[in-house]
Structures are given as structure tokens and as C-alpha cells.
Amino acid sequence: MIYSHNNMYKTFSCILFFLLTNIIVHADDDSIVFSEAEVLSEFTTRIPFKIIDHLIVVEAELLNKKGNFIIDTGSESLILNKVHFDFNELLGKKNNTTSGILSTIDNPLERKLKDFVIHSLSLSNVKSDVIDLSHIETAKKMNLLGIIGFNILKDYEVFIDLYLNQITLSKIDKLGNKIDEKVYLEKIIDSIDFILKNHSIILKGQVHNQSVKFALDSGAEYNQINKSVNKKVLKFFKPKKRLILSGASDHNIEVLAGKLHRVKLSETIYFGPMHTVLTNLRKMNEAFGTEVDGVLGYEFFQQKRTIINYKKEKLYFIDYPLGSY
Amino acid sequence: MKKIITYTTCLIIVLLTFTLNAQKKEVKGYTIQGDSVVFTFDIRDYKFFTDEYSSERLEFDDLNLKSVAVSGEFNLWSRDKWKMKQVDQFTYQLTKKISDFSDAFSWEFKFVINEKFWAEPTKNASNIAPAKDVKGENLYVYNLKMFSAYPDENGNACFKLRGFENAKKVILSGTFNRWSENQFMMHKTENGWEVTLHLRPGEYEYRFIIDGHWIEDPDNPSKRENEFDEYNSLISIEVPVTFHLNGYLNANKVILAGSFNDWSESDYIMTKVDNGWTFTTDLSGGKHHYKYIIDGNWIVDPDNKIQEYDGEGNINSVLMVK
């Protein structure tokens, strides 16, 4: 999911989730090229990214357009920005079936990319939604071609590395094993199981020994904790500031921002106090397709170099080389 | 191989600069020194202070100053976490590592006295932005804005534009300030316009805005097409990086080879020192692969555990410059 912030107090929460149905359009030459990527093999590629307001942004070329894509584990599908693509060739429009948390987004078009290619990595029949993302472009002052979500990422082991500022995609087989052997050299220091609920990575964690269910979302600018979570958990949320979250339209909600203390995912995986906002996640639960008590976003990835394996439903962690350079 | 543009030092005409300085608005509230951000609160820069709770506007003499803190987007506007230290009668400072700021562009901030009185910047600061309340309504005061890039006569990137003598206003805009259309005003020189910035290592895109009309840098051949079917000019900012190989004191010759010099096996000859071998070179921001060649034998850096495969299955050491 994408949360972005505007000027001083504004925090946008552009929460996008989609029901995928209806029109499927086939097009030739639908391939995405990451011009900056290092292609290690037919199955593995490393793509450098920039961080723009806590969002992971890669550069790519699709349908003769060059620009930015956000890597968002909270999005179910590939989303293309209507502003930049001429979809006259589309056969029709999908009805108003896409909805956001705070608003309904107008008539999303959907197209199916016949052949979605990451360099030589090819995916067939990838669904994509086509919607207007210009509000994110305005808020971030960036060009944005689209959002790369779960339905692209799920076929790869995905290493999101905020130390080397790159994402490594390595194709996996039916069992979740990487097809390539030579992918990473750094040692995996820890791992944890997650549950894949629809497209969402759900982690069972604890806040001061109270069970808390988190969704892991690389498109979340700030972590979030649900207002209705157990009071014993909320005791460890120390509010500091009020912020405005707003959705795809101009509907705003006011939230409290602060720090969440004592977050722990296992005996060995725990976090220092993390910037967190207190929100009403009831509607967001629809987006995640399941009930969650909180969302772990940018700061999670900043503290943990994380490998996601959707098939094995496992996260792996690589050591952070603090002070090595 | 990435294109690298070397920037020559600007020739600054002292008298002209002096005159311009006299008229120029200054960046207030922070400076970037090496890899640190130094926040500086000078009491004399602020005429009044707003009480967070009553919205009352007070003068400095009304306050019984106990503490000064930096509060901004980078610390979620905490009123008490980033306390400053008094350095003289009027000045408070706080130093932070640039690496503490994860984003590449800009942050808004203010100084807060006794955790509740906001120091209101005046229009004399060049780095101000209108402050808004939680509902997005204008508060009719300013925040200070901090950029990882800022104008500095001793900075590391000098931008020059020849000609355009009749232009009224020329602005430098780029990815380093999120394409701001008013922040980096260029100064008129004898034969054109210029401004010198301090930039972090990395690659940036930029354009000039001449009286509202955008152009690419006509003297910079390095450019890329943008979404408007025009071009953005490109620069790469480098920093000196020292490679050190411990030991191997019996070796005759040690070479540093990497992605930064096209894996040359002869260019970067390391110098023997007391405890090993060393070599310093300028590198752009981002990831670099490298290895050492000791008397003809290639090795990875034994003291660097960050390693990656290349496309052929070879193992390289990895250095990240941020």
C-alpha cells in the first residue's frame, strides 16, 4: 500500500486495492525493461532503487514509456498510471469495482499484459489495473508510471535491501526453491514464517508479550497500529503528533503519530522504537483481505535487510553491516 | 561505464560576490559539513515565538528559556527528542549524521523552545516554506526547509550557464531539490549565470529555468530524455574513498580493480603502508564492485563481508557509497 506525505503536516495515505475481474486485453510487446538492472542470469536480476519519501522506487521502461515504478508488497496487482499510457486500444471499461479505503476510485481500466518481461524473465498473463495515479505524482513531485505489486513479485524470491538500495528478484519453482543457485553470498542470519492471506504477508508478533498480527507492506511510509488493538498493546504506543492521512480523493482523517515500543516477531527478531501512526484499520483490513492489528512498512525494511519467499511463506534476514563503511 | 563529468572550480569575482552576498537571503537553521548536518538556532534570527497551545505570539524576552530542540519531518515533529546544546550566548547547536536522514531530498523543520514555543522564521531566510496546520490550512507562518543540497560557495558542484545576459531570473532546478522552481536562484556573472551547490555523492538530473522557460544545460553533453520529450542534464557527484588492504606486506605489487575503472588490471596501483596497502580514488554514489590483484592473483577484500556474484558467477566485494 502506498502512503505518502506532502508538506509539513500532511500525510497522504493512498490506499489502493483492487478487485480483479472483467476485461482482459491482450497486447503485443508488453515488456518491462529495467535499464539500470544487473542481469545475473535468465532467472535472477538486481534492480537498484531510490527512496522517495520512504517509498521504494525503481526505474523502468514499459510500452515505450520510461519512468518510475513503486515496489509495493501491499498492492495486489500491477497498477499502471492512466496519465502516462494511451489505452485507446482497450476494449472497454471496467465498472466501478475498485475501491479504496477512503474513497472510490473512478472506473479503473484493467488490462492483462500478455507477456510481462523482466529483462529475460518472462511472465505470462499478468493482470494490471489502470488508474489515475497523478495525486501521488503531485504529492511526491515525481513521475510515476505505476506500482509493482504481489502478482508480479510472488513468482520470485524478493530481496529488499535498503543497505545496497536494490531489490533482487530470483525466480522460484513450484516448491519455492530458487532456480538459480548463485544468488546471494551474504549469510542469512535469521528467518521467520509468515502466513499469506490473499496477497498479504501476515506476521504474528508481539508487543510486550501481547499477540499482535501485522501485515508487512513495503509501500507503507509509516508503520501503523490499529486503534482497536488490545489496550495492553496501546500502552506501548507513545503518541507525539497529530497527522492527516488522506486517500486517493481528498477525504482526510486525523491520526496520532508516535512511536511503538517493544515490537518483537520472535525471540531473536525484535525492533527498537519505530515511528508508527495510530489509525482505524477496519477498512484497511478489507484491503489486506484479512484482519490485522498493525502494518509494518518502511522502517521494518530499514532495520532488516529482508528476503521474501511467497511460496515458502518465509522471511529471511541478512546481517546489516553497520559501520563496515 | 557511467558518464562522469568533472566540475572545475568556479572562478568567483570577489567584488561581485560580495555585492551579491549583501543582497542575498541566507539559508537559516542548518549547514551540512562533511557527512554531518549541523542545526544551528541563533536567537537573533527570530522575532517572535508561537505558543503551541494558546497560539499566543511572544517575544524572546517573554520566554524563560530552558531548552531548545529541533523538530521536523525527520523525527515526526518530536518536541523533546533532538535537544540542542548551547554554544554561546545566542546560539544552540545539534549535529546529526547525514545518514540519519533516509530520504534524498528535503525535510521541513522548526526550532521549539521549552517543548512548546515555536520559533518563527522570518522572510529573510531563503529556505522557508509556508506552514500548514493539521487540516492543511495555511498558518501564515513559515517552516524552515532543509535540503541535502544547498548553495555554498565552497560547494562541490558549480553550475554555469553562458549567455542569457538579458534574462531577469535564472533558476537551477533538479532532482537534488525535487525540481523546486524557486529555491536555487543563479547569480549573474560577467558572461552568464552560476550557482555552486553542496551535493551528496550521487547522480542527479537538472535543468535551468530562464524567466520561466525550462532548458537543459547547453554545455553538458551528458543528458537523458525526460517525460516531456525534452532532455534533463546529468551530473555525477563523487567523493574520495580510501581502500585499504590489511597485510600482504611481502607482495610486490597490489592493484585495485573494480567496476569504477572498468576492471583495469594496471591503473590503480596501491601504495604500501605500515600495515598493508592503500589507494584513494573519487567514486560516485551507489554500488561498486571491486577486487584486489596481488602479484597477479585476484582476491576479494578479506575485511569486507559484503559480496555479490557477477553475471558469470564470479564473486566480487561490494562497496556502497551514500
From TrEMBL, chain B:
InterPro entries: AMPK1_CBM, CRP1_MDG1_kinase, Ig-like_fold, Ig_E-set. Pfam families: AMPK1_CBM (PF16561). It comes from the Bacteria. Coiled coil: none annotated. Residues 166-238, 239-322 form the AMP-activated protein kinase glycogen-binding domain. Belongs to the CRP1/MDG1 family. This is Glycogen-binding domain-containing protein. It comes from Gilvirhabdus luticola.
